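A quick aside before the break. I want you to see a complete sequence-to-structure record at least once, exactly as it would be stored in a machine-readable document. Don't worry about memorizing anything.
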Amino acid sequence: MREKIIILDFGSQTTQLIGRRVRELNTYCEILPCNKFPFGDETVKGVILSGSPFSVNDKDAFKTDLTQIRSRYPVLGICYGAQLLAQSSGGEVGRSASREYGRAHLNVKAPSDALLGNLPPKSQVWMSHGDTILRIPDHFRVIASTEDVEIAAYKIDGENTWAVQFHPEVYHTEQGTKILDNFLHICGVKKDWTPESFIESTVKELREKLGDDKVILALSGGVDSSVVAVLLNRAIGKNLTCIFVDHGLLRKNEFETVLADYEHLGLNVIGVNAKGRFYRALEGVTEPEKKRKIIGKGFIDVFDEEARKLSDIKWLAQGTIYPDIIESLSITGTTIKSHHNVGGLPEKMNLKLCEPLRLLFKDEVRRIGLELGMKAHLVYRHPFPGPGLGIRILGDITPEKVRIAQDADDIFISGLRSTGLYDKVWQAGAILLPVQSVGVMGDERTYENTIVLRAVTSADAMTADWAHLPYEFLAKMSNEIINKVKGVNRVVYDISSKPPATIEWE
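That is the input. The structure line, written in tokens, reads:
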């Protein structure tokens, strides 16, 4: 049985980052709401308590009884977790005279401590708290301080419990990975979570779970569904049928290119050209959410029609990944958003769900894809929205507008690839605005369309900054698009971050 670390989520925006850091140390972990600890699970080897947007003194703060957890497992409290441990043991937490946000310098006071002892005496950490621990019980021992915070880290005597008021999971904490690694050593967990071990165990589990049943999978061309397809193909071979629907809103030549890629992977793929059907359904529709719903319903209908041509299908496979699962539940268990990337299909078709990547982060999915022998350009392909260009063409959709958006996007993406910028960007694309402006080409006055170029950097798409692409590159892209894409006479670059903007425009 696979050993694990449990991360109890108290609502911090960096909880997923804790999980990713632990996984990067080849250790399996699961993130659970703070009130959902899996007592009785013999595979649990240690527990990490996350931060929180709340103060422990808020009446609505998330709290849970930690007594049984502390008596059974090694525990590491981070920020809010540290303050909750102290307060629940009789300590005092309150507003600090000097709130710490950002960089601080940690002074280790316990050179023999198992958590911090092998760190340099001084190192940079990242703070983000308005409250601080004012007083700790007698059996708590301070093991590190900063210039402004005396109790920056502590150990509870007689327990395998540690706590830090800074964030070891963030990049700016110089020794953060080492601190988490030390905690894993304290837990005695086996560091056997690797792409190779995941593939081996998952293929075995899929064979046992699916047997001779037949499975269908909706392919999008993205890395998640592609990795699912290759895993399932390795496990059940010909019993997997993939369906790739062209709704007419893909990138230029993408339908043909992706089908060729899948042929290289040895997959059984049915390609469906449904452009006309989608264009007719979208005619005259301008409202973004209505466009999304039409595209989503159209996809479900086409997929369902194709699937019914097959016999004895028992399972629907999906490329659901771990952030989808985490974000689908709040701490109280209330659904925030549906994570099914082809929502409505399981109920409509009476199929069982197969989601072999549901416990992986995006970077882990990519590592698995490379280990499976997939081509790098497929593994590292930028995210592309399910509705495709339907939400990158503002206003109504027409075949002519699709052509303009595809041609502009193709020049931009090809340019990023040829200059080595593609892999430095999380996501990029061209947006066609429902705006025309005056221009001059040769001696003629033009009144044509505006293209917006959008490129962002990000780690997980939760937040994103606009990519600071070289001016020379942007000038070249503008010139090529205006010269080569009929119907465009103006190109602009989006320099909005997320938040407050979103990555996509609709």
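Two observations worth writing down. The longest helix spans residues 288-307. Confidence is low (pLDDT under 50) at residues 332-340. We'll return to this after the break.
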